[in-house]
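Data card: per-record layout.
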Amino acid sequence: MTNSNTSATGKLVYQLEEMILEGVWRPNHKLPSERRLAQRFGYSRTVIREALRQLQAKGLIITHQGIGSYVVEVFHSIEEEFIDPLVHLFDSHERTLFDLLDVREQLESHAAFLAAQRATQTDLYQLTQAYERLASPDTELTMDTYFNFHHMVILCSHNPILVQTLCQLKALLCKAIQTCLPLLIQDAEVQNQVRSQQQQMYEAIVQRDPVAARRATKTHIRFVSHHVHSVKKSNFY
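The structure for this 237-residue chain is written out next.
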């Protein structure tokens, strides 16, 4: 390969890595064909092929002959080593729930802040779909609709470290939602407040208002924490 091709390949590899890091191409996403990549980035098929070979050597994509190339998980799961023991603590120590809500408040509010700045049109379309399922007046809040909306907000942040950190907490987050949700939907007024808070989150992100998105997310998670704490305290007495 000539020096000019080597230089072009290095530039293309960097561009493709950026797309993976920013979440434009997410795990299990199928990359465009060599021909489409050549058209999109303006490089020869030789350069495209070498760039894909280097990405595969780095473990960022996997190529199946005759099928195509796919993005792999950049980070490996740590659930068995770290999360499982916390799930057991969650079952027996109530404070773990509120510790997790504290973490959610800090990380998810920043994710919402970034989402309002960085979300692509495709992101906003997917966020809207998740929000509409969540906000449907014909259905009550469920773990799936609640989790999917908040997870989509996180993905819209396009910060791979933040996304991965929260994804690694998925087992705990689902456990927390299972605990909190029944306490939120048993009172129609409380459920309406939750829906209103999530509407404010959604609208702030769509309207590209990062400060409002962060504020709405903090308000929502603090409300959940306060309400659950109040219910558990009253039940104790």
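Known properties of this structure: DSSP finds eleven helices and two strands in the chain. Residues 77-83 have pLDDT under 50 and may be disordered.

See the next section for split statistics.
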